[in-house]
Amino acid sequence: MKQIAITGGKGGTGKSTVATALAVELGKSHKVLLVDADVDCPNDHLLLGIERKPLKKVFQRIPKWDFEKCIKCGKCAEACKINSIFAPKGKQPVFLPQQCNGCGACVITCPAKAIGWSEKEIGEVFKGKGYGIDFISGELKINEAVSEFVVASLKEEVEKIKESYDFVLFDTAAGTHCDVISALEGSKMALAVTEPTPLGEHDLELIMKLLKKLGIKFEIILNRFEKGGKKIIENSAERQGKTIAAKIPYSKKIMESYSKGIPVSHESIKAIAELVK
Ligand code: SF4
Ligand code: SF4
Q1: Measured between alpha carbons, how far is 109 from 78 in angstroms, rounded to an integer?
Q2: Architecture of 2-58+123-276 per CATH?
Q3: Residue 14 pLDDT
Q4: Which of 3, 27, 96, 146 could form a cystine bridge with 132, CB 3.0-4.6 A?
Q5: From ligand 2's centre to the CA of 73, what distance in Å?
Q6: What is the pLDDT of residue 159?
Q7: Domain boundaries of the chain, sorted by first residue
């Protein structure tokens, strides 16, 4: 089994387009599992036109108050560093569950042992099939903030089945935050997808720094490449001692595939497939 991450410092660079197209290309001759780990905004199933089926719900622990025991001291609100508890002096605390990350500081701090645990549903893991590949994705519910539990739950499911595949492709969220790091862990190789803009250059440098820090070998994929355009990414890659491993052109045909929910088929995707084999 070879685990590969498709990532990028910036959103909207075509990371999911590359991940889905690569999965379909590799799926022609190998057993492939595509993992959509962008739990805030999963869209691989839309790009592939795959219907997802629920696999499991994701829950997070949250505190629960026994107001009979509460002595209205306000210490739980002081202990909560993200202001999930509002406790005016001499009044019962008010809990704002959307912000809560389940850290437990309020439970430990309460001198009256008035706080126990409950749980709330914060997301779901889905599975699906299509174009000869298996698919799994996580999704955080709207208005929930703690996405790392959904990523962890998704990874738990992947761990159970990954050894039965030739390739496991992790499509990560954009950026360099905790969810991205969690999705990158375990990958032997990463594809950093970027676009030829100053923002693309800036965010590519951030993701390259992260991948180097994590010790993950990576290749740069330049999306929306235009012949004769500015060599922003080429120059940036050169400064890091890298070359561009593949260039996906800016083309009407590719844009049409994208908008119709059909995986992109192009020579550049075939070249990326050869690169990761
Ligand atoms: S569990 Fe942590 S984040 Fe949630 S309310 Fe208590 S102190 Fe705040
Ligand atoms: S710390 Fe405990 S006793 Fe004090 S206000 Fe909070 S719940 Fe009530």
Answers
A1: 9
A2: 3-Layer(aba) Sandwich (3.40)
A3: 86
A4: 27
A5: 5
A6: 97
A7: 2-58+123-276, 67-113
Cα 24 to Cα 29, 41, 180: the distances in Å are 10, 21, 23
Q: Is 71 in the pocket of ligand 2 (CB under 6 A)?
A: yes
User: Could you give the angle at which helices 232-239 and 198-214 cross, rounded to 10 degrees?
Assistant: 30
Residue whose CA is at the smallest distance from ligand 1 atom 7? 80
Q: Determine the average pLDDT of the residues in 82-87.
A: 94
Query: What are the residues facing 65 on neighbouring strands?
Result: 115
Nearest by Cα to 151 from 172, 129, 130: 172
Query: Ligand 2 within 6 A of 76 CB?
Result: yes
Asked if residue 104 has its Cβ within 6 Å of ligand 1, the reply is yes
CATH number of 67-113: 3.30.70.20
**Cα gap 217→9, rounded to integer Å:** 16
Helix (H) or strand (E) holding 57: strand 53-65
Distance 114 CA to ligand 1 centre (A): 14
Determine which residue's CA is closest to atom 4 belonging to ligand 1: 100
Instruction: Please write the tens of the pLDDT for every residue from 23-58.
Output: 999 999 999 999 999 999 999 999 898 999 999 999
Is the shortest distance between the CB of 84 and ligand 1 below 6 Å? yes
Which amino acid makes up residue 262?
I
Using alpha carbons, select from 103, 59, 65 the residue that is nearest to residue 81.
103
Q: What is the pLDDT of residue 226?
A: 85
Q: How far apart are CA 116 and CA 56, in angstroms?
A: 25
